[in-house]
Amino acid sequence: MPKSKNQNQNFRYLPLVLLTELVCFVLADHADMYFIQQISRKLSNLAHSDLIDSKIVTLVQQGQYVDALQFYSRNPLNATRFTYPSLLKACGFLSNLQYGKTIHSTIITKGFFYSDPYITTSLINFYFKCGSFGNAVNVFDKLPESEVSGQDVTFWNSIVNGYFRFGHKKEGIAQFCRMQLFGVRPDAYSLCILLGASDGHLGYAKQIHGYSVRKVFYGDPFLDSALIYMYFSCGRPLDAWRLFKDLEDKGNVVAWNVMIGGFGENGLWENSLEVYLLAKNENVKLVSASFTSTLSACCQGEFVSFGMQVHCDLVKLGFENDPYVCTSLLTMYSKCKLVEDAENVFDQVSVKKTELWNAMISAYVGNGRSSDGLKIYKQMKLLQIPPDSLTATNVLSSCCLVGSYDFGRLIHAELVKRPIQSNVALQSALLTMYSKCGNSDDANSIFNTIKGRDVVAWGSMISGFCQNRKYMEALEFYNSMTVYGEKPDSDIMASVVSACTGLKNVNLGCTIHGFAIKSGLEQDVFVASSLVDMYSKFNFPKMSGNVFSDMPLKNLVAWNSIISCYCRNGLPDLSISLFSQMTQYGLFPDSVSITSVLVSVSSVAVLRKGKAVHGYLIRQRIPSDLQLENALIDMYIKCGFLKYAQHIFQNMLQTNLVTWNIMIAGCGSHGDWLKAMRLFDEMRSFGIAPDDITFISLLTSCNHCGFIEEGLKLFQLMTVEHGIEPRMEHYVNIVDLLGRAGRLDDAYAFVKNLPIEPDRSIWLSLLCSCRVHHNVVLGKLAAHKLLDIEPSRGSNYVQLLNLYGENELQDRAANLRASMKEKGLKKSPGCSWIEVGNSIDVFFSGDSSSPRTIEIYDLLNSLRRNMRKKGGHYESVEAL
């Protein structure tokens, strides 16, 4: 733009013209003092304006955008036209739309809008950066045709780039064609803009590649790198590699960096590291971006050893204080769970910029040390390090995790005073903090102020409601989101599935499953895991298995979900077998996996499997948590090995009420009532208050051991001293306790005085006691109460039938059998199982459908023959 350059040069020469004029006046004998003062004042004003221009430009170049705007606000009248492009750049970086509009008004007032193309271009770029597409286009449309035709390629690039950034692809291409009609030839950056808008569309990207070849755009490092990146973004890493190999300039470090980063983005992290090694061998002059891309690949692939080698390389090349490299290095260590190494990197940097502080806070948050993240933030504030929107986002995440609602409100109060408060991502973080801390009113208030609500904002509200068990509100927001035309992402869909689970609405859950299929999110690992969990809790293990089988990529969470599903739904064998299959898919069980499979082992009392899982846990050095150790204790108790359970219990560093309850119940079930009571007293001495489950275990123990008075005292202790409201299980234990001791009248009196309606278990317990002590009258009464509650349950009739038979009331027994046959009632057969080798065989009473039936009877016949030959007690075998 030659015209604008001459204008700028004339303005810059103005102080020299005035100075020459002043010298001439002074040298002349007839010099007028008034004119001399006027020229001196003009020179002084111009000098002052130049100082302001220089100061603002310097601050913007150094990235001190807030300081630049504050300096301008103190000297608004002395700014010249050269100041405004820098001011608009600062406003664009801070996304401060309102202040930029004020500057725009000043530009119009001073008459600079049409006269200076630099200002016009800066205005358009500012509005695009602030997300105000309409204002940017309005500025462009107000330019006269003559002014537009005189613009250079830089101006047109900003227009084309703006259209593409806001998704107006056709309009952007139209402006690209219009630029050429005005005789402006595209440059390499123009093609880079077009490549950036390819959106992973290979055909469109190849057309631009062909255009660049036809127009002979060779050797431009930015265009070459953009073409390589384009193929990576289209998921064609092999084409990118071929293009890279054909480059003439192998010293183009930008292209090397794109190769390293591109392989990483396509999940080919090992290839990224190979390219890094190749660049070293080719003596490419590596820059900070080379190390950040490589460290990112190490981070994603968890190649911590290679990352340490890169750490050595960057120290040798003098990049240990580069802010971007240090931030990437710290992030790599934190993502690989090496928080101490991340702390060392942080401590060794002498001048810590905001980005490094952000990375350290994020490292603590990502590794479950949110309290330390808040401490770092407080230290940052003491050192007066200016926080940015990412700092606030990380700190608000920490507040969510530790439940520090008051501290989150303080952060919000600070943000209101700052220009970044209108940042959408930051508003979403505030929204998440309020919603997850349970403050729906503040969350709604923030949500209503967000103008450009994106999927993150909607997702924050929905997940917050789910976390606070407000499932209906979550579903209402989901419906509102679809009305506004916003498509849910995987996080939102997973939250909505969880809401259906929380509402226990299976029909709604199936409907949401259908929506997930239509939106293509069914196979997403997070959505699918939520569906597995939902169908598991609705007692549809087959549906859970189908969803799991259809998942193309199964992570550890998905495996844990399906193992837990089969365990919860009475399919422990499947749960145990899936646990052994995990390692075949390259996954290693964690504490959650082991806890779930131990519960399955406990339910079938397969000691051999349980010991194998325990051994695996020790060999792999999997960190044990309290829940896992409780599961181990429970498994050994239910498998009959109380001594092993006691050994684990005695070596635990931390216990909770669940731990003590398991041990008390275990000692009681193994007949050691005194040990159970000692544990109970010891638990209370540690300040752990018992709950209703504790007393169920103690009362059951009293039942097994026949300690009647002790059981009644415990019941009194529970209700009076500890104020625990008895449940039906407690009442059943007291009825059983009195009934076993033959105190049937006391048991019946206790039942009649219950504050709640007795259920099946109460009358069944009383009936069983009547059978033992041959009390037909009370037994018949209990039986009829039982039949009134469940008239179609065959086992209820069997109890009364046994009562009649044991008391030689054959006529009544015969009539009852006839009634059962007429109603088609049968008693569910009892079953038992035995563990042989690595398999479990289950046998039902009166059933010969076992696959090993023939083998079993052949062995039994063989035993009979041997006993006959040796003169053994054949008759006793015959009785079997």
Q: What report would you give on this structure?
A:
- With 880 residues, this protein is an all-alpha fold.
- It is built from 50 helices and two strands.
- Strands 1-2 form a two-stranded antiparallel sheet.
- The longest helix has 29 residues, at 33-61.
- It starts with a helix and ends with a helix.
Which structural category do the helix and sheet elements fall into? mainly alpha
Helix % is over 70%
Give unreliable regions as ranges: 1-23, 25-31, 39-48, 872-880
Strand order of the largest sheet: 1-2
Largest sheet: 2 strands, antiparallel
Count of extended strands? 2
Radius of gyration: 39 Å
Strand content: under 5%
Distance between the termini: 108 Å
Morphology call: elongated
Q: What does the average pLDDT come to?
A: 77
- Separate helix tally: 50
Summarize this structure briefly.
By secondary structure, the protein is an all-alpha fold. 72% of the residues lie in helices and 1% in strands.
Core attributes:
disordered C terminus; 2 strands; disordered N terminus; mainly alpha; two-stranded antiparallel ribbon; 72% helix; 880 residues
